[in-house]
Amino acid sequence: MADEPKLDGRQQSTHEIQRLVRAAQAGEGSAFRELVERFMRPVYALGFRMMGNHDDADDIAQETFVRAYQALDRYDERYSLYTWLRTIATRLALNELEKRRRRQTQGGERFDLLSETQAHSGPGPDADLDAREARERVAAALAALPHEFRLPLVLRTYEELSYQEIAQELEIPLGTVMSRIHRARRMLREALESHSAKRPKEAGP
């Protein structure tokens, strides 16, 4: 499990993160702003994968840091800061998705998604374009999954949580986590294979 996200060169040690947290807890606004700058990108990326669009991802990320600031005095340093932020973001996403569901009702261990879209691709002058299109297809297929399948797959594939950790995060049984991830992987493969089958074949010389 990767407790801390891989950030850019500004990332320093866990000790430095803890120093900033303590400074923020003591009322230093600049320390909390630096924490936001360090962790906004991975929290936003998680929100995007869970919600499937940029507007919702932005809302989730912003609200995550609002909640974190309000509860900063209760942060437990035994856990990485990102683990704590991820839990807040996941709860917010689950709550929002459940609200929408109610409104609608009333009215391998690591699955390499990208490789699935590039299984028949080879190197060439259009490799970068192909890779970008592949990422876009994966993102679209992921966003189209029902949220009860999308969220555990995101936590497993991108956040690298164990099945037990996902069960705790989403508050569902371990067996349910395993079955939903298995089904989500199958649904994604089917969606990506269907897209590949519909692509027009290149004309020959």
Fold topology:
Blueprint lengths: L13 H12 L3 H23 L2 H17 L10 H26 L6 H5 L9 H18 L2 H11 L5 H8 L3 H25 L7
Helix pairs in contact: 1-2, 2-3, 2-4, 2-7, 3-4, 6-9, 7-8, 7-9, 8-9
Which descriptors apply to this entry?
9 helices, Rna Polymerase Sigma Factor, Chain: A, mainly alpha, 205 residues, single chain, globular, Arc Repressor Mutant, subunit A, 71% helix, 2 domains, 0% strand
Question: Can you give me a brief rundown of this structure?
Answer:
The chain has 205 residues and is mainly α.
The low-confidence parts are 8-12, 116-125
User: What would you call the structural class?
Assistant: mainly alpha
CATH topology type of the largest domain: Rna Polymerase Sigma Factor, Chain: A
Give the overall pLDDT as a whole number.
82
CATH class of the largest domain: Mainly Alpha
Shape: globular
SS summary, helix count: 9
- How much strand content do the residues show? under 5%
Total discrete domains: 2
H/E element order = HHHHHHHHH
Rg is: 19 Å
Description of the molecule:
This protein is mainly alpha-helical. It has two domains: 10-107, Orthogonal Bundle (Rna Polymerase Sigma Factor, Chain: A); 108-199, Winged helix-like DNA-binding domain superfamily/Winged helix DNA-binding domain (Arc Repressor Mutant, subunit A). 71% of the residues lie in helices and 0% in strands. The protein is built from nine helices and no strands. The chain has helices at residues 14-25, 29-51, 54-70, 81-106, 113-117, 127-144, 147-157, 163-170, 174-198. Helix 2 (29-51) packs across helix 4 (81-106), helix 2 (29-51) packs across helix 7 (147-157) and helix 8 packs across helix 9 (174-198). The radius of gyration is 19 Å and the shape is globular. The protein starts with 13 loop residues before the first helix and ends in a 7-residue tail after the last helix. 25% of the residues are buried. Mean pLDDT is 82; it is low at 8-12 and 116-125.
